[in-house]
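User: Predict structure, ligand magnesium ion.
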Amino acid sequence: MKTNKSINLLFAMLFIAVVTYAQDRPTIEPKLTEVWEPVPAKITPGENNAPPSDAIVLFDGKDLNEWTDGDGGLAKWIVEGGAMTVKAKTGVVKTKQKFGDFQLHIEWRTPAEVKGDGQGRGNSGIFMMKKYELQVLDSYESKTYSNGQAGSLYKQGIPLVNACKGPGEWQTYDVIFMAPVFTEKGSLKAPARITVLHNGVLIQNNFELKGPTEYNRIPVYTPHGKGSLVLQDHGNPVSYRNIWVREL
Ligand code: MG
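Assistant: Predicted complex:
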């Protein structure tokens, strides 16, 4: 009965294979795979982009108390109608507080009255740690270089899509920023990373920054600690509102 022997052998091999596979991935008592500590802190989320209960509110439409100008003096931008607007030639505004890793919500609006084109139309920008610019620009129907349009990491990262609304409309950025990490000797251990949602749409997916933003040079990292959030005065009356961060 040669055939029977072959079948028996086949079954034996199959049995061994199943047992071996099961031993590779033994089952575990389900209770032993439950993790109960730590318990995440309970927070209250905000409705319609309002800050959650654990956020630091940087601008609620009323005043610039959380901000200074570039030199640490009084911030000179215009606060009106629940928004702050760039006052040309007064320079940047920056937060008094400094941040490392954070989640940021910020709303911006380029002027309803369209003037200029390319980089000259509704240009501003949000600098993480004073160094890494997320571009703010009217890129609705206005051509410029892709790594300089709205939602770009200026001269480094092209947005995945153009999710711009029109001039005069409020738009949102939701940002997750991870600061660069340096060794004790000052060399780069991990680059800065940034994820950005523009009007709720993913446009930067864990993008690895090449270094601080440069206009006409190759970016190079130098060691630094936490830094202010900075909003750019590019001469155009761009407005901001509802700005909050959560430190991570
Ligand atoms: Mg800019």
